[in-house]
Amino acid sequence: MKRVLALVEGQTEETFVRDVLTPHLEGHGVGVTPIVLATKRIKSGGKFRGGVSSYPQFKRDLQRLLGDRGAAAVTMMLDYYGLPKDFPGIAELRGGSCYERAAQLEDCLQSDLQDRRLIPYLSLHEFEALLFASPETLAGALSAPHVLRPLAAMVDVVASPEEINDGPSTHPSARIKSLLPAYSKRLHGPLVAQRIGLGEIRRQCSHFDQWVTRLESVGAV
């Protein structure tokens, strides 16, 4: 079993990787350990967890994982939405599709870290986009059939849930919360994703699918 370390943005992503992604990858000979990004370390040895406040802080955590030479690969699950302004390449982004912009930033990160074991991944535009792969499942999980039509309408105008944008009030989680105030990212997010199923999410979300495919390939090396 090849060991992969995954630096994730928060506890929602930690649960998703552990409960949804890892069981699938184990079938490919890959075991993934999710590790939540530490936003602040304190002298007593404790730390606050989750979120990205600056690139140097994120880079330190990533380099710490890359320092584990027993890991076959190191990856990440970080939201494209809300990236810090000092993230490599972000100041140079000009036009292009969301897929092209995410790929450009992933390439810039790879160039900055210079480690072939790194498999960068930026979630377009954040974790909640994956839940739009099935508005029916999302509405059903919160016993709210009345929101199915507006949720479905948001998906109908894009080619993929990953294209639901990164505006302050229109990014995926903001859209969900506007219709479902009871939605809890940590409670409902991984549960809904698990009910939708990895196969359906991959079918609709090509950037996510490419990431999973790369992780699968680690087991074949």
Task: Write a compact overview of the structure shown.
The protein is of the alpha/beta class and 221 residues long. The chain has nine helices and seven strands, in the order βαβββαβαββαααααα. Strands 1, 2, 5, 6 and 7 form a five-stranded parallel sheet that branches. Strands 3-4 form a two-stranded antiparallel ribbon.
Describe the structure.
Helix 1 runs parallel beside helix 7 and helix 4 (135-141) packs antiparallel against helix 5. This protein folds into two domains: 2-125 and 200-218, Rossmann fold, CATH 3.40.50; 127-198, no CATH class. Strands 1, 2, 5, 6 and 7 form a five-stranded parallel sheet that branches. A two-stranded antiparallel sheet has the order 3-4. It has nine helices and seven strands, in the order βαβββαβαββαααααα. It is an alpha/beta fold.
Distance between the termini: 11 Å
Main sheet overview: 5 strands, parallel
Question: How many beta-strand runs?
Answer: 7
Quickly give the structural class.
alpha/beta
Low-confidence stretches: 40-45
Give helix % range.
40-55%
Assign the CATH architecture of the largest domain. Answer: 3-Layer(aba) Sandwich
Percent of residues in beta strands: 5-15%
> How many structurally independent domains?
2
Mean pLDDT: 93
Looking at the structure, the CATH topology of the largest domain is Rossmann fold
Per CATH, the class of the largest domain reads: Alpha Beta
Overall body shape: globular
Radius of gyration: 17 Å
Order of helices and strands: EHEEEHEHEEHHHHHH
Number of helices: 9
Features:
five-stranded parallel sheet, 9 helices, Rossmann fold, about 220 residues
